[in-house]
Amino acid sequence: MTGNNSILLYVADAEASARYFTRLLGLEPVEASPTFTMFRLPSGLGLGLWRRDGVEPAPISAGGGCEIAFRVADAAAVDTHYRDWSGKGADILMPPTDMEFGRSFVATDHDGHRLRVYAVTDGG
Questions:
Q1: Could you read off the pLDDT of 4-37 as tens digits, one per residue?
Q2: Cα separation, 89 vs 42, whole angstroms
Q3: From CA 49, how far away is CA 15, in angstroms rounded?
Q4: How far is CA 120 from CA 3, 43, 46, 82, 92, in A?
Q5: Does the predicted model carry a pTM greater than 0.85?
């Protein structure tokens, strides 16, 4: 497989989700319509938001069964992103926590998709 890879999230309202991710990530979409929005993350990965009622074949599960993980440089960056995302209204499931691999927090979008920000520490 070649080219840029993407993750697609099925959402109830693609336009509302696009506004949420624009605010949270500080990125503008590279493609947008009433039913679909695509972001290009700094890593090159595409993050697509697709209105659930237009997907074929129809999705059989809702958000929350997996997560998108955003790696940052260090534990301080985890805390900085936590403050930033909290200030932007992100729903926080887990505040910054030291775990066996490093430091992490978890937020969700309006559809229940889990978004983990983490940094691997020397011990992890």
A1: 799 999 999 999 999 999 999 999 999 999 999 9
A2: 22
A3: 9
A4: 28, 17, 23, 16, 20
A5: yes
CB-based contacts of 28, cutoff 8 Å, min separation 6:
22, 39
Query: Which residues are 36's β-sheet partners?
Result: 50
Distance, in Å, from the CA atom of 118 to the CA atom of 38, rounded to the nearest integer, reads 23
The per-residue pLDDT for range 29-88, each reduced to its tens digit, is 999 999 999 999 999 999 999 999 989 998 888 777 889 999 999 999 999 999 999 999
Residues 6+ positions from 122 with CB-CB distance below 8 Å: none
Helix (H) or strand (E) holding 100: none
- H or E stretch at 16: helix 14-25
